[in-house]
Amino acid sequence: MMSFHAAEGEIHIDGRVDEAAWSNVHPLPLTMHWPVYKGEITEPTEIRVTYDEQHLYVSAVCYDSDPSKIQAPTFQRDRWGQDMDQLTILLDPYNDNENGLIFSVTASGSRIDVAIKNDAQGDDIMNLSWNSYWDASSTRDERGWQAEIRIPFSSLRFQEKNGRVEMGLTVFRYLARKRELDIYPPIPPDWGFWSFAKASQAQTVSFEGIQNKRPLYVSPYALSGLGHHHEYDNNGHYGEQKDRKFQAGLDVQHAFSDNLNADFTVNTDFAQVEADNQVVNLSRYSLFFPEKRKFFLERASIFDFHTDLNNNMFYSRRIGIKEGEMIPLWGGARLVGRFNKWDVGFLNMQSKGTGDFSSENFGVLRLRKNVFNQRSYVGGMMTSRIGMDGQRNFVYGADGIINLFREDYLQVNLARSWDSGDTSDVGLFERSRIYLMWERSTEKGFGYKFSYSSVGEHYKPGLGFEQRYNFSQFGDRIFYSWFAPEESSLRQTTITLKGGVSFSNTSYDLETSVIGLESRWSWKRGSELAVNVEQLQDDVPELFRLSDDFIILPAQYANTSMGIRFSSPPVGLLHAQTSLMAGTFYGGKLVSWNISPNVSLSKYFQMSAYYEYNTIVFPDLEKPFRSHVARLNLVASLSVKFSMSGFVQFNSIQNISTFNFRLRYNPKDGNDLYLVYNEVLNN
């Protein structure tokens, strides 16, 4: 346990660490995390932390032997990358060793705030769309650069006991051109790239005498717009239709107690949300798209009831989006926090009836509690989806993650659904979802992950996401990873063997089996190379479409593929990732290639792009299947408060081009002006 001394005097957030209050605070001892754990720090850094009744303060004096090489490529909010020098603090406000909030400021003064869940383990642990209320500033001089961060305690949710608050805390400085990360407390990189963001490795610190205010944030909005589209009228004439729109609404945030925070929304609108990426689906399973709407993002991890891949009992994009169409919402309420050692989450939303879709009510209730130790919990969840047309769906489940010993975890998920539209006389198993997993959560030495997954044929998660149904699956992966010697340019090598089999729950026939081998090398400068080979046996039960002209017929297929992917060091102002895969594909021969370059033209202008090409030659067809996906994203950040972005996409399979333009003026947190233009062209 570590205690900080309260600030003695006022601190102005101007990016200059010159107030007398800082002189009474001792710098924290830093340890090199990258590129060599406990290596010699190359540039001195003084990071200090203090607080008063209302705020937490962090400062850094970042000395640099060559200030001209400090990398500050952008003013853009929430652009977080390894090509920018930055000061970062991670807080685990509940000290639950699972959830972290990251606040980062770069040498240009741009700010990044990120929510981290699942103790930074797994595939979907970071949410860059989360935003909070805080401020920061930075300056540069002949010695290097300096930064200050101020975080209101009212922006955090925490528990107070006997006048004292305990949180987890991690701070670090990152030097982009050297890919050097110097951190407190000492955290080894044993859990992979995100080791520095693990809440369980943060230093427990205590604060006394802080005020946990209960602010009321009221955010009215007004939206005005003009749209047009083309369609056939009642007389069969194809022409342009214009839509004029004016809408007003209200968002309210209020803390009912020190640990419970409520959000209310009326006439909800998400017009300012960024567009989804265009993709081509070469599988027979549904695609998953991440949530970007702010209302659903704060402490979203409390509603997490995930199993394998992206499958989850609650998928917030089921609310307000149906069959690819945006459905307007009357509004709703959301309550998250902690009550008597229980994590609590409640959500209720009401959609409007529109066109072919009736009004619906969506409800979620989530409870969970730590057991045995800080790394283990058990919990339960219930979702409801009730339509005004009489359709009803309910799902309830129980889950838990138990830290068995050291880095070994056991995860259990059990869920069952009831749907008014399904009157089949089937048993409990057919309406259930089961997931069991045993994992050694480390990337140093020998590791493993063994799992069992089963989804009943009649399991219907009305608010969830499932890629497939009516199967049981066994398998997963084992791996061995080791770090190179300090003098080597290589950083880490990992060899992974994965495999699994799945069977039909009704016929018990083998549906799929997969086995694969991958070798991955990462270098201290940040580049990475991976080579893999995979064999997939797939018994396709019914046809699925690649496009309007290409279908895969039911049959047994053996697909063998080899792939290679490479990413250049992400520390420079120009970097890229690319991958190539070739092999057999459902009776044909596939070649797939993609590349995604990123370039910072200046601190005012950035550009990123993506291009993907797929070609499949089927022996019985005269022409091959070909697909192209292209994306171009241009961002102009004239200051930390004003930005513009243009996002152009092309998808040859859907034969569409899309354009999204956003102008944002953000004078301070909670106050935004957006100008948004969207265009979809049928080519």
Question: What features would you highlight for this structure?
Answer:
683 residues; mainly beta; Immunoglobulin-like; 23-stranded antiparallel beta sheet; 10-stranded mixed beta sheet; 1 helix
Write the layout of secondary structure elements.
Blueprint: E1 2-3, H1 20-23, E2 31-34, E3 45-51, E4 55-63, E5 86-92, E6 100-106, E7 111-116, E8 126-127, E9 135-141, E10 144-152, E11 160-161, E12 164-175, E13 180-184, E14 203-208, E15 216-232, E16 238-255, E17 260-266, E18 321-322, E19 325-326, E20 329-339, E21 342-351, E22 360-370, E23 377-387, E24 392-405, E25 408-419, E26 432-440, E27 445-455, E28 471-483, E29 490-504, E30 510-523, E31 528-540, E32 544-545, E33 551-552, E34 555-567, E35 574-585, E36 588-600, E37 605-617, E38 625-637, E39 642-651, E40 656-668, E41 671-682
Parallel strand pairs: 1-14
Antiparallel strand pairs: 2-13, 3-4, 4-10, 5-6, 5-12, 6-7, 7-8, 9-10, 11-12, 12-13, 12-14, 15-16, 16-17, 17-20, 18-19, 20-21, 21-22, 22-23, 23-24, 24-25, 25-26, 26-27, 27-28, 28-29, 29-30, 30-31, 31-34, 32-33, 34-35, 35-36, 36-37, 37-38, 38-39, 39-40, 40-41
